Amino acid sequence: MRRHSADNGSESDVLELGTEAVRKLVVALVDDPDKFPVSSDLENGVVTVRIRFLAGGDAGQIIGKGGRNIDALRTLTNAIFAKHRLRAYIETAE
């Protein structure tokens, strides 16, 4: 598949905008956003978004009851990047 930069923007722009969208979703879910830094990288058309749980942060706010929040976050992340023909994954780490 061919990517058209005029239509989709550069991959680095898409990565930055997509990561910012995920960051805003995380901020909406948690009480203390500074405890949950979000970063990402792009390799071979695959975006990996990392959400870290720092000490004192309540990981349950991100995970949600039965994993509902993290599942919804994964679905939205995939939708954001799929528009630009990129696959996306969310990794969580303490």
CATH superfamily of the domain at 31-93: K homology (KH) domain
- Tell me the number of helical segments per DSSP (H or I, 4 or more residues long): 4
**Judging by the overall fold, what is the CATH architecture of the domain at 31-93?**
2-Layer Sandwich
The SSE order reads HHEEHHE
Shape: globular
Residue ranges: pLDDT <50 for 5 or more in a row? 1-7
**Total number of strands:** 3
Query: Gap between N and C termini, in Å?
Result: 37 Å
Indicate the structural class: alpha+beta
Can you describe this structure?
This protein is α+β, with helices and mostly antiparallel strands and 94 residues long. The chain has a domain at 31-93: 2-Layer Sandwich (GMP Synthetase, Chain A, domain 3), CATH 3.30.300.20. Helices cover 46% and strands 21% of the residues. It is built from four helices and three strands. A three-stranded mixed sheet has the order 1-2-3, covered by helices on one side. Helix 2 (11-29) packs antiparallel against helix 4 (68-82). The protein is globular. The N and C termini lie far apart (37 Å).
SSE layout and pairing:
Layout lengths: L4 H4 L2 H19 L8 E6 L2 E7 L6 H5 L4 H15 L4 E7 L1
Parallel strand pairs: 2-3
Antiparallel strand pairs: 1-2
Helix pairs in contact: 2-4
Descriptors:
single chain; 94 residues; alpha+beta; GMP Synthetase, Chain A, domain 3; 3-stranded mixed β-sheet; 3 strands; 46% helix; globular; disordered N terminus
